[in-house]
Amino acid sequence: MDNTYTIRNIVNEDGSALVSDYGAHVLSWTPKGHEPVVWQPKAVYLSEGTAIRGGVPVIFPWFGLGYANGEPAGKNPRHGFARTAFWHVDRDTLTDRHVLYTLDSDDVAPELLAETPSGSDSKFHAEYDVAVSDTLTMTLTVENTGDAPLTFEAAMHTYLHVGDVRCTQISGLVDTPYLDSADDFKPKEQTTSPLTFDGTMVDRIYQSEGTLLVHDEALHRTIMVEKSGSPQTVVWNPGEEAGNRIGDLMEGEWHDFVCVEAVVNRDSAVTIEPGEAYAISQTIRVK
């Protein structure tokens, strides 16, 4: 594996994206005629073992601290090892519209593999497909290449660029139950539509597999987020107090994005039998 910080500039007549081989990380995506839709901070730090802020981090094989026996499992690193791995790029399929990455269990250090929900005997082949045009489609496919069931959590932790999150609304979640991660994971329900942001932290795991619309009043646009293979959606913005404490964000950058994530985690974690595969996909477009 080539452990270099290669960043690929995918450009065509419909849009462009920057994608890092480290983490198979979409850093930005800009459809033609629009401001960037996938957000990246003013300063992007590349350091082995450290996750990249912004863009679309690939979360696998656990989410957050992991989950076991009804509570956080205390796993390290947070959000798994995929986002800090050097993925292989499939050069045979690389075009001005498409890049395909692969990661195998043999690429992972034994001490990290031991942290997977299925333990150190876990065997997998993961493919991450990024298609760039006037839409951005990202698909993570995980195949169980071992002899025992494979359990994992996964997500596309997508940062969407907005003019000001306090002038942003998300529709498509009314009457949807969620876990409030900012309030000790208490179960709640979205009783109002749309979801709005007031500068306090929003960190919620919605039991939602539907399409969401992100209405950005400041930039006068609506971003549509579609997905498949994901029964949950995480919506996250750290808010002013926590956002200004995040070390790799500049002061005030917290209001330039909202994360809308395609997720399988906690009680919705995926288990696949030997030889089976599971795919989770997210498509973003500007309406």
TrEMBL record:
<feature type="active site">
    <location>
        <position position="261"/>
    </location>
</feature>
<feature type="active site">
    <location>
        <position position="157"/>
    </location>
</feature>
<dbReference type="InterPro" id="IPR008183">
    <property type="entry name" value="Aldose_1/G6P_1-epimerase"/>
</dbReference>
<dbReference type="Pfam" id="PF01263">
    <property type="entry name" value="Aldose_epim"/>
</dbReference>
<dbReference type="GO" id="GO:0005975">
    <property type="term" value="P:carbohydrate metabolic process"/>
</dbReference>
<dbReference type="InterPro" id="IPR025532">
    <property type="entry name" value="G6P_1-epimerase"/>
</dbReference>
<protein>
    <recommendedName>
        <fullName>Putative glucose-6-phosphate 1-epimerase</fullName>
        <ecNumber>5.1.3.15</ecNumber>
    </recommendedName>
</protein>
<keyword id="KW-0413">Isomerase</keyword>
<dbReference type="InterPro" id="IPR011013">
    <property type="entry name" value="Gal_mutarotase_sf_dom"/>
</dbReference>
<dbReference type="GO" id="GO:0030246">
    <property type="term" value="F:carbohydrate binding"/>
</dbReference>
<comment type="similarity">
    <text>Belongs to the glucose-6-phosphate 1-epimerase family.</text>
</comment>
<dbReference type="GO" id="GO:0047938">
    <property type="term" value="F:glucose-6-phosphate 1-epimerase activity"/>
</dbReference>
<dbReference type="InterPro" id="IPR014718">
    <property type="entry name" value="GH-type_carb-bd"/>
</dbReference>
